[in-house]
Amino acid sequence: MIKLIATDIDGTLLQEGNDIINPEYYDVILKLKEKGIVFAAASGRQFPSIRNLFMPIEKDMIFIAENGAYVSCRGVDIEMVVMDRQIVEEIIFAIRKMPDCFATASAKDKMYIEDYDDRFLDLLVNGYHNQMEIVNDILMVNIDIIKISIYRGEGVSDIANSVIDEWKDKIHVTVAGDIWIDFMDYRADKGNALHSIQQKLNILHEDTMAFGDNLNDIGMLKSSGESYAIGNAREEVKNVAKYIADTNENDGVLQILKTLL
Known about the structure:
Distance between the termini: 12 Å
Radius of gyration: 17 Å
CATH class of the largest domain: Alpha Beta
Number of strands: 14
Strand order of the largest sheet: 5-4-3-2-1-12-13-14
Structural class: alpha/beta
Shape: globular
Strand content: 15-25%
């Protein structure tokens, strides 16, 4: 019997960087709650951005932000995984040398950038609605960093393998979308965050359902007995998932959630 549902957002519930969710999700999630089913939104987005999407029902769900580096429910910090400062400095220095790439550094409630173009800034402000600050030097800001990201407007597919190979022995690094590569502490993963929620709520693996489309969703899918890759997911994700749902454009997740009602 399903007691916990977790779903990715960008690429799964909606298009990458979109700021509008089908309002029917709100009603369905509330009805699932009435049946005793907990709903969690899991994303590489920062917490304020996810909360903005689900504002009408923010008190009725769990937020897994920054790929599992930060978990919050009803204003309470459930989990926060901070990156090692030396590794942070090494990654920032490396990104600064990469052509056409911009770095973001995330604390639990704000994102920091030091370089940008108009397209990048518009996506952060008007697409994700991030709480953010532009600084001269990220490394001069006294914050606990929980995630660093590479943004590349032309896509990261042709640099992803080399970046992952370079850093995989030092830090958790994953493709988080067509234009994003994320770095977190090894402990930070959507799957680990979901497992922590399962333990806190005494919910079994087989009573958990999850949805995803990209590589950063694989841990979450593996932590769920009923796992779905949506129709537009990467092949690597479809190979891990137990089922294939419809695409995000056709509200594939919503279709499955309705079957539980």
